[in-house]
Amino acid sequence: MDKVIVTPLKQIFHPKGDVYHGMKRSDPGYAGFGEAYFSTIHKGEIKGWKKHTRMTLNLIVVSGEIEFVVYDEAQKEFFSVKLSKNNYQRLTVKPGAWVAFRGTGEHNMLLNIADLEHDPQEAVNIPLEEIDYAW
Amino acid sequence: MDKVIVTPLKQIFHPKGDVYHGMKRSDPGYAGFGEAYFSTIHKGEIKGWKKHTRMTLNLIVVSGEIEFVVYDEAQKEFFSVKLSKNNYQRLTVKPGAWVAFRGTGEHNMLLNIADLEHDPQEAVNIPLEEIDYAW
Questions:
Q1: Does residue B49 have a cis bond before it (omega within 30 degrees)?
Q2: pLDDT digit string (tens) for B42-98?
Q3: Which residue in A42, A64, A110, B116 is a FRET match for B75, CA 20 to 30 A apart?
């Protein structure tokens, strides 16, 4: 799917506490910096669907495990991936795709490095039932 | 101390999982985006001292609790603060200050939103004993 980029991230061992890469400005998917925020999702809960019309998302799972589903309405195409420290990758989602995510671990938290500051005007929310997906 | 800015951050309740602010490009302390990475610190361990000669740090405690100590060598002045979800603030550290931090909770992790990509040439490391502080 051309609406997403999945990029493996380094985990660097340190005896006092490890270091985990997030994003560099020279990385694939970087679209500028507007805002970084954290979102948590309780186990079994799903947030979505949301479509950003202008924002590029860069999603990194900080703790727990989160299943992301991206839907490209024009292509009628779904993409899904489960991210965690055990599958430590960054998910870039370009504007115009529908996104939903479900907590599948414990203490599930993501970081979104977005190229725009939060602006409710540029996002569209619809109920989960509006897009048929076998959760 | 003029080398640091401490900025309260919003925590937004959501029944499916809360949202935590990190940084907006319009926020105090924002100095540009170079890299975002996570660093963990085991309970009782201290990482430091490190002085960045060009990098501005923006430190947010994502989980656990971390005690930060900043030392301004020119002013012979110390600053310290313990950050966690219970004291949810961002610590901005300007270039030229010595920084060390200790894990004081469980699963201690910080996010650094730095204005430069990692470059070992711009940072100086010295052993903890080199700066006299009553840890």
A1: yes
A2: 999 999 999 999 999 999 999 999 999 999 999 999 999 999 999 999 999 999 999
A3: B116
Report how far apart, in Å, the C-alpha atoms of B135 and of each of B17, B44, B67, B103, B128 are.
36, 10, 10, 12, 10
Whether CATH 3.40.190.10 fits B4-130: no
Q: In whole angstroms, what separates CA A3 from the centre of its chain?
A: 12
The ranges assigned to domains in chain A are 4-121
Instruction: Pick the residue from chain B with its C-alpha nearest to A22.
Output: B37
Tokens of B34: 């170079």
Query: Could you give the CA distance from residue B28 to residue A31 in angstroms, rounded to a whole number?
Result: 22
- Please report how many Cα atoms fall inside a 13 Å half-sphere around the Cα of residue A134, on the Cβ side: 0
A38 vs B22, B33, B35: nearest CB:
B22
Q: Does B61 touch chain A (CB under 8 A)?
A: no
pTM: 0.97
- Would you place residue B134 in the very low, low, confident or very high pLDDT band (cuts 50, 70, 90)? very high
Which chain A residues contact residue B103 at CB under 8 A? 17
| ipTM surpassing 0.90 | yes
As a whole number of angstroms, the distance between CA B102 and CA A6 comes to 33
CB contact under 8 A, A62 and B108: no
The separation between CA B85 and the C-alpha centre of its own chain, rounded to angstroms, equals 14
Phi, psi of A120 (to 5 degrees): -55, -20
CATH number for the segment(s) A4-121: 2.60.120.10
* Residue A9 and residue A84 in contact, taking contact as beta carbons nearer than 8 Å: no
What is the separation, in whole angstroms, between the first and last Cα of chain B? 19
